[in-house]
Amino acid sequence: MRAFVKLLNFEMNRFAKIYIGLMLLTVALQLVAVTLGANHWLDSANEAMRVNQWTLEQYHNVTGNIQLNSMMYARYNGLLYFGPIFLSITVLLIYSCFIWYRDWRGKNTVVYRLLTLPSNRANLYFAKLLTILLFTFGLVALQIILVPLERLIAQSILPAELYRNISVFDFLKYPTVLKVLVPPYFSEFVLYYGLGIIGLIVLFTVILIERSYRLKGIGFIVLYLAVLAGLASIPFLMGYSSYDSYFYPGEIIGASLGLIVIIVGGSLWYSLYLLRKKISV
């Protein structure tokens, strides 16, 4: 266990500076986006009331309430608000590959030292896997923390007669990328992040196949992905998307869960086998 914790700490420290930079960028740009958006709505309201000789109540009767999600559609605020989210997701996706390939860089490759450590090589695999997951959930937690702060900023700028406060839950339900990043329902959270973890495990397996067999591994990768595609198609062949399926919904769900176990278990087993027996430095 101590060896695993040391490897996990090592992996997280290697990406910590970039990760902290992404978090600071997300905080800064989102707060700026909300501030600019709130001021934009305030300026628009003042201009409309001046031109039309409206009172604040009359303006409210015409336009309705302004909510936090309204801030995203003021000028270029959508780019400011969601840009760092997409950037963070992209960087994490790239690093999911780079977390393995960086070990082979340079003359004195890090992977040689990692693979010759007197510990189970599975620790290295799960340290890298958990590193990506912790960074991902860290960004999710940051987003949840930011929403109440953003509400306070909007509330402090806009008149109470115009601004309607909504809960964090209602804000996350709004159809944006946040609904996928921070699913408001537990079932959606399990589905989205479950699929994400499966995808990450499959990606790690593909990388380890390539690192084990190099160019020859392309054929193995194609075969591996073809097998996965075949397994993933079984629920659809059973009538997953059809109302007149021969199978009961419970049977299809059970088969799907069984296939997930096979895909995850098989991929993990093969990855650890490659790491122990086939990987070269």
Terminal CA distance reads 25 Å
The amount of beta strand, in percent, is: under 5%
Shape, principal axes of CA atoms? elongated
Q: Based on helices, strands and strand pairing, what is the structural class?
A: mainly alpha
The SSE order reads HHHHHHHHHH
Number of separate strands: 0
Unreliable spans are none
Helix content: over 70%
Can you tell me the number of structural domains? 2
How much is the radius of gyration in Å?
25 Å
Mean pLDDT: 84
Number of helices: 10
Transmembrane segments: 20-42, 79-101, 122-146, 190-209, 221-240, 252-275
Keywords: Membrane, Transmembrane, Transmembrane helix
Task: Describe what this molecule looks like in 3D.
The protein has ten helices and no strands. α8 packs parallel to α10. Helix content is about 75%, strand content about 0%. By secondary structure, the chain is mainly α. It has two domains: about 170 residues, no CATH class; about 100 residues, no CATH class.
